[in-house]
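I am still getting used to backbone structure tokens and would like to learn alongside you. To get us started, please write out a protein record for me. Once you have written the record down, we can walk along the chain together.
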Amino acid sequence: MTDETCQWQGWREATERALYGPGGFYLRPEGPAGHFRTSVHASPLFAAAVARLLGEVAEELGTAEVDLVDVGAGRGELLTSVLAVVGSSLAVRAYAVERAARPDGLDPRVEWTDRVPRGVRGLLFANEWLDNVPVDVAEADATGTVRYVEVRADGTERLGAPVSGPDADWLARWWPLREPGARAEIGRPRDEAWAAAVASLAAGRAVAVDYAHVREARPPFGSLTGFRAGREVPPVPDGSCDVTSHVALDACGDLPAGDGLAVAELVTQREALGRLGVSGGRPPLALASTDPAGYVRALASAGEAAELTARGGLGDFLWLSCRVRPSGRRPGPRDGRGY
């Protein structure tokens, strides 16, 4: 074994290296779409819904010039589709926030950056970003002491030092471990990343969409897992697979309200897309006789909408939405770190 393979690290450090270090999983040319299918890839209806949301935000701001920031942009698929839907109806300044290099052939209107831009007036959208913000893992040992879980690059684990300080405070509030063997992902870095993203808005709306859970229904043994080539695999932090876990979005949304920041709203993707006109209802059968081609198109669209809103699938994703009013004071990043 190499020294790196034998080294014990916390899951946060190991995941950072595996996903974003040299040769990391998310820096590969094929991008996320080469390994798993998000709502963006499932149907153009998703981008159309985001385009409608962008239009709503522009109307709220009273402008036809609006910013659109896609955090964790993959290879720019969502921005490309939204710009095509919007056309000339809005003047959109588009920003793709991603650590990988800018892909060839991307729409020149898209600014590619590895940092969330500041002073945004418009919509910040983060689809399946927070689940890939690296976090540490904790486990209660046989005596009930909550300890950090350490891991080697081959996926071997052991229990390390007791969890203390802000991490212990976070667990006590958001995900207490009461039984030996219980595990949790310590979501504090995701809270901080989301607070920094919301703080980048001068006015508009920030939306995070992700696999998620809330305090009343945390998974008892955590949700850490891996994905490779469309299959769920053990979470081995060697760069060969995605390393991900569901997000405690209720904790992320616990930002101080007032002074420009409205209370966060947390709804399922099924409800959020329904508000934006995406429905899985079948078209009326009468359309098949009056407009057969139109019926086939409507049927295909209904099938795609059904996938995006399905119970037990993409429809169970949670949408966290935070509105920022003009000239308000937003919460800053709690540790000064950006994406």
Notes: The longest helix spans residues 44-61. DSSP finds eleven helices and 17 strands in the chain. The mean pLDDT is 88.
